Amino acid sequence: PSQQFNVTSYRATTVAIITVEVFAGMWINAFLVCVLCIAWVKKKTLNSNEKILLLLGCSRFWYLCFTWISHFLSKIYPKYLYLHHILQLLATIQTFFNYSNLWVSACLCGFYLIKIANFRNSFFIYLKVKIDRMVPWLLLGSEILALAISIVIYDLTETVQNSNHTFTCQENFWEARIPMDKYFFSSIFLAGFGYAASFMVVIFAAVFLLFSLWRHKRTMQTNSMKDLSMDAHIRAMKSVLSFLVMYSINFLCLVLTITYAMKEENTMTLVISIYLCAFPGVHSLIVIFSNPKLEKALLKILSCVKCE
């Protein structure tokens, strides 16, 4: 009985913490989407940065939504996961929005690099000129990649459910005792490649932005001048570096989800779940405070709430 109580208490604590994080993150991303949609209606158009942020906010909102549904069902009503392919659909949708979140956020870092950094390389100048036309195609490519990987995950869950009848309703997909066949390893390799590729884009953007800022600062000191591009460099660097730190931890947690896939619930799986649910909301908050218009809108709403 005491062991049963500990398991129940663990699951209740996990659901409670994740629920708070998810709803906070959903509110932050819903705010981001609403502000951008209002600006879209007023201006009848969106610039490239706003297009990326709009898709990023939508991806994160729905990722958090389906993550909470998945956690809630797996901890409170696990038997419902195995009715009418509910597990497959949840895993597929969650994977799609997760990869959409990762790749669109990587596009945001690349966009900051191309727009703000100053390099005399002819290819870099070409990218700077063409970046606004490239953004819609980059976003489309991100969504296609996310869709392709989610289809693979759907196929994987179907294969696992058909070939493995040993796991019970008390275990969700990532906690089941999955047979280590070649199909499973190839799917995990594909998922890891998606994580690693987007992570490399973020590292690349952070390193080159830092190098550009260092060169620009030296030029300004030599000429005893100050200009607005220095502030733009610093704002972008704060956003990208904070994202790099968070993305590094997020990448580690995503790798650990594979390591702990076949192990029972423990403190490490709880910590991983908490961070993965906190990441979309916290980073979106950083993005808001690095954008003067979004920051002003958020502070205005918070001041109204405080007055009431």
From TrEMBL:
InterPro entries for this protein: TAS2R (IPR007960)
Where is the protein found, in the record's own terms? Membrane
For membrane topology, the record states: Multi-pass membrane protein
**Which Pfam family is an annotated match for this chain, by its short name?**
TAS2R
> Is Ribonucleoprotein one of the keywords UniProt gives this record?
no
Q: Which GO terms describe its cellular component?
A: membrane
Transmembrane ranges, per UniProt, are: 15-41, 53-73, 93-114, 135-154, 183-211, 240-262, 268-290
SUPFAM superfamilies, alphabetized: Family A G protein-coupled receptor-like
What GO molecular function annotation could you give as one example from this UniProt entry? bitter taste receptor activity
- Known Gene3D superfamilies for this protein? Rhodopsin 7-helix transmembrane proteins (1.20.1070.10)
* Keywords, comma-separated and alphabetical: G-protein coupled receptor, Membrane, Receptor, Sensory transduction, Taste, Transducer, Transmembrane, Transmembrane helix
Homology family: Belongs to the G-protein coupled receptor T2R family.
Which PANTHER family does this UniProt record tie to the protein?
Answer: TASTE RECEPTOR TYPE 2, TASTE RECEPTOR TYPE 2 MEMBER 40
The name this protein carries in UniProt is Taste receptor type 2
The organism encoding this protein is Loxia curvirostra (Red crossbill)
